[in-house]
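FAQ
Q: What does a multi-component entry look like?
A: The components come first, one per line:
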Amino acid sequence: MSEATRDPGAGGTSAPGIGKEAKERHWAKTRNLTIGVLVVWAIFAFILPWNAKALNEFSFLSFPLGYYLIVQGSLLVFVVLIFFQNWRQDAIDDEAGVGDE
Amino acid sequence: MIKGSFIENLGRVYAMYTGGFLVFIVLMAILEQMGVGADTIGILFVAFTVAIYALIGWLSRTMQVEAYYVAGREVPAVYNGMATAADWMSGASFVALAGGIYFGGYGYLGFIVGWTGGYVLVNSLMAPYLRKFGCYTVPDFIGTRYGGNVARFCAVVILVVTSFTYVTAQINASGTIAARALHIPFEFGVWIGLVGILLCSMLGGMRAVTWTQVAQYIVLIIAYLVPVIWMSNKQDFGMVPHFSYGDAVARIQELEPLVGLGTAATESAPADFRGVRILSTPHNDPQGGMDSWKFVTLALCMMAGTASLPHILMRYFTTPSVRDARRSVAYSLFFIFLLYFTAPALATLTKLQLLDPTLPTAVIGQSFEAVKSLAWVQNWESVRMLFLTDSNGDGIVQLNEFFMRPDIVVLATPEIAGLPYVISGLVAAGGLAAAMSTADGLLLAIANALSHDLYYKIIDPKADTKHRLIVARVLLIVIGAAAALIASLQLTGILGAVAWAFCFACSGLFFPLVLGVWWKRANTQGAIAGMVFGFAAGSAYLYYVYNGGTPWMGIDHLRFGIIGMPVSLVAMVVVSLMTPAPSQEVQDMVDEVRIPSGETILGAKH
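Then the predicted structure of the entire assembly, as tokens:
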């Protein structure tokens, strides 16, 4: 997915060249993205399965919702979440000029 | 093998391999039609696949350090994803997961969520940073980030305990399958399994393990998906059962009270039927409260464990770049997901086939004599994995009279649904691939930590390349033999040992690894305290509950990481703050790790 944004000239050994402030900005953005991802992760890993009993009152694709999330829904969210995170992280890296390709 | 051209031709090589494997399956089906016996087909499946893995292992032999430890750092993201998936999915995932869901209901599903969600932690907190570090092993990261041989040594000890716990279970599983397919006693099966495992890893180290794991993933995923989809079509559960078994779940919930679920058995199975049990847990009936707590604690231990298991983390050292490391985490989870979202479908449909009196495959509520004479029941009864008794003498099979071992759910499904034997042979080959690929990764993780971190970094830093690689291989054989010896004594069940490995890993390694990147203030003393206290607390608690102690708040031996992790975190933070901050040099190093581009931290220091 990052094929389009890949710039052969941008990567390489430019990292030591970027300033302290740019590094801090890059890390702040990385950290915020990571926190956001972990919040979504915690909802689907803990909060929704915890409430499976209540969610089972609802139905999704003719599954009880709580059951569906545990056997399939949360898993799908995890897969999509990682692809999404990598897409955003690549953008953050490229913007700071520290994409490594 | 010409390296450059092999990497360029990966797609073609593995496409040909997959095609060849499919042709082999068809060939076996034809042989079956011609009247060749089931035993012969089973032997051919196992022999053919193991021979291919050994061939790949031999072709990938190497005498270069970089190739031996990290596959030359040239594994493309998609292939590393497949290799990680095979490395990850053990004999337990393949053989026991669906059976666990069948018998365990909601409580067991914590494994499913835990073993997939853990990759979000791997991707967010670990893989890209460890790849940037450029280490060969996980203790290599600990040793360099925190400095000093004590920290490195602690990490080596935890790694060895964790991986060794896990590898005996894998060798046990490969021995079981080899024994059944080749008709030899289990004690020999274990050693045959070990020889296969060593053939894949000894000559080429990580490079050989990588390319055999890709091949093993292809076999195991075909072997898992084909029977489920075939069974679903044959029994009219829909073309792709994954999205349409909601009705089956509802039907099971409707049937459960009718078949008397929860009635205790009035008779127990004879002692030589080890591990057989009756179905007594509802398929989908979470009660909230304690049920929820147990689910979440189990999932948390498995997730944090995933993110600290050295044999998984070291796979991400093999990609060409940091970006590829991240991308390959995404592919890893996708390839794992393919199996994990199939297992509940398999468990549900198999259960329905046995329970629903309107289906021809039904067993519960049928005449005792008729069930007793079913071919698949007789097969599994003869190997003491299924037990049938008419306790109340009414001539009908009740739910509390039908005992089976959880791990036969996957293996027996093709027979229950009346699929040809070739499918059973395929499933055996898949189970063997799953167990072997995980055992390879684990053995290599242990041997590499001992040869690189203990021998080269601590004992003899002047050792030359040839020496280091010979030591690495000798260790591989010695550790493999030790694991096989313990496995042949059959001390632990498959799943107990697997969950323990995750808890050991997260108790000792999770916070020292995460905080090494995410908290600059973390120092040597803190890391050592985190590893020692976390690991000791978790182990002590395991010792306590395993020897009959009353679990505190339902925290049993499957989730003792819940005790180890907080102890590790507190010890690490408190001790770090009580001792001086790490040097400017170390703090600059952490800054550098956080940036994907540029040279690796360790560079050419190896």
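Q: Is there any commentary attached?
A: Sometimes. For this entry: Chain A touches chain B through 56 residues (CB under 8 Å).
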